[in-house]
Amino acid sequence: MSGRPLRKAPGKGFGMYHDSVFSQQEGEDLHPQMVKQARKSGQLNLSNRGLIKVPDKVWTLMELTKEEEDDLKRGISMQDASEENWWDHVELTKLILACNKISAVSPKISNLAGLSILDLHDNQLETLPDQIGELPNLRKLNIGHNRLSSLPAGLFNLKELRTLQLNNNQLETLDDRISDLSMLTSLDLANNHLTALPSNIGFLSQLLTLLLSKNKLTSLPSDVSFMAALHTLDCNNNQLESVPEELKELSHLELVYLRSNKLTRIPCLKHCINIKEVQLGSNQICEVSPEDLQNIPNVRTLDLRENKIQVLPDEISELQLLERLDVSSNDLSTLPFTLGIMPHLKTLQVEGNPMKAIRRDIVARGTTGLLKYLRSRIGEEQIKQLEKAGAGNVSPVPMSGSSPIPDTYSMKSSQAVNLAKKGLTEIPLEAIENGKEAGVNALDASKNLLTMFPENLVELLPSLFELNLSTNRIPEIPAWISLANRLQFLEMSNNKLTSLPDALGDLIHLREICLSFNQLTDLPSCLSRCGKLETILAANNKIKSIDVAELSQLSQLAVLDLQNNAVESVPPLLGNLTQIRALQLEGNLFRMPRPAILVQGTGAIMAYLRDRIPK
């Protein structure tokens, strides 16, 4: 062991050691080693440093110092690997200044035109410079937990912005020009002082997540119905007395949070076929009518705790996909016995109600014991009547009035078995038999609850041209997929796939495969044997590399979508695959090609790659 004295434990943040690069910053200076690292990686992290001011060098990071210019004039040995070569510098794309005490940002921020991520959360900013709008490549901006009461006009010029975090500030109004940020997918306005939203916020048609909790909103504009892609709406802790009926048109809506408001009834979400969770706790709901329940037919989790509900109607059993129901701390004296025959109900919370018709020891048994008791109170004849009416089915139907299994006549007319959105945990054998009799060539079982590739498809596979099992929970595809020797279109997006079987390469007629939103770490090599493959959609996985040798075997490949993966580098030889007409690579880890090239489209990307092929 050396005689070096032991170091003391550092205090908050970094830079507390005497030999730390940050201990040598001398206030506003940026240590040369940090400059070198930033120029090499394109990233600079100065979070949690106790900074009162951003070091001036940050804004001129790419400018050479006088010493560097002198070295350049003298001529630098290209053989000296220890030198920092100016021609190896890359633009700064990520700047993190979070968790400091910064009160101002210099207008010189416009010098950092290559920035795609800027993080300034948890500082003391009261204003931002208008020049922030001169960052054409900025995709993510986090300015939450500051003291902003308004936003600079220039911010609304950020046309490529996808994520904007404005939470925990002092905003009282939101500028109408928010609609100019048309590419936004996430907008966080939580913990401000907003009393209203501009009506044209509905023009944010790409928005997936809208967070508005802990404001002073009394209403939402009806134009939210134009946010066709909206997935999550969080309006907890406001002063909403109602929500616009137009909300029911948002077919992609999955999560609706409306806790701690002044609502008196359940909102209508009738056409929100993907709805999973509705939270309405701590409101002023006194009554739940059968009509209210019809307005949320597909809900999985329903939170009605801490309201003033006195009665739950028997029709609650029509919520065929319901898994969790919380009616604790209401005014319920009993529960509908029909809760006991709901097929998917796993959690039932009823504590804090003045139950008179159900003994306390029964309530104390928990969900399983309580549901068993409720079912025991229904006669067998009544159970049959309820099941006949559609309550308690093993495979519940999301939309009332439709049958889980199409009849043979419908299958013959459409040449397809349509089982989409039926809440199925398996494919009914009757559907397979009817499909064989009808001679179908397509099967759609998307948006169900399948946890494995249906085994009874074996009999139908040889006749299928198209198979859609997207939006389920399937972890793997079996090797006997090779029986589908006529298959041309395979849709497996939104599952839990980590690989594909080698036998899938035997599908010699396959023209299109969709694998988006899975857990693949590479583009499966078996696809290279599907000689007629024209389209590969594999966005939103964990793919790390692109094998050009395998892709080059697909002479008809025209569309390749690898957006939002973990690709670290794009091989220049990919540019030689001239048959590709649409190539999408945004949202990966690589730095080259730069975003400025990617936005120009496939032609520019391919030309760029070809120029990088060694002569």
Keywords:
10% strand, 615 residues, eight-stranded parallel β-sheet, little secondary structure, Leucine-rich repeat, LRR (right-handed beta-alpha superhelix)
Structural summary, described in words:
The protein is mostly loops and 615 residues long. It has a domain at 408-611: Alpha-Beta Horseshoe (Leucine-rich repeat, LRR (right-handed beta-alpha superhelix)). Helix content is 14%, strand content 10%. The protein contains eleven helices and 21 strands. The chain has helices at residues 32-41, 66-74, 290-294, 360-363, 366-376, 380-389, 408-414, 429-438, 548-551, 595-598, 602-611; strands at residues 43-45, 94-96, 117-119, 140-142, 163-165, 186-188, 209-211, 232-234, 255-257, 277-279, 301-303, 324-326, 347-349, 416-418, 442-444, 466-468, 489-491, 512-514, 535-537, 559-561, 582-584. The strands form two sheets. Strands 1-2-3-4-5-6-7-8-9-10-11-12-13 form a 13-stranded parallel β-sheet. Strand 10 (277-279), helix 3 and strand 11 form a beta-alpha-beta unit. The longest helix has 11 residues, at 366-376. The model is unreliable at 1-27, 77-83 and 391-403 (pLDDT under 50).
Q: Topology of this protein?
A:
Layout: H1 32-41, E1 43-45, H2 66-74, E2 94-96, E3 117-119, E4 140-142, E5 163-165, E6 186-188, E7 209-211, E8 232-234, E9 255-257, E10 277-279, H3 290-294, E11 301-303, E12 324-326, E13 347-349, H4 360-363, H5 366-376, H6 380-389, H7 408-414, E14 416-418, H8 429-438, E15 442-444, E16 466-468, E17 489-491, E18 512-514, E19 535-537, H9 548-551, E20 559-561, E21 582-584, H10 595-598, H11 602-611
Parallel strand pairs: 1-2, 2-3, 3-4, 4-5, 5-6, 6-7, 7-8, 8-9, 9-10, 10-11, 11-12, 12-13, 14-15, 15-16, 16-17, 17-18, 18-19, 19-20, 20-21
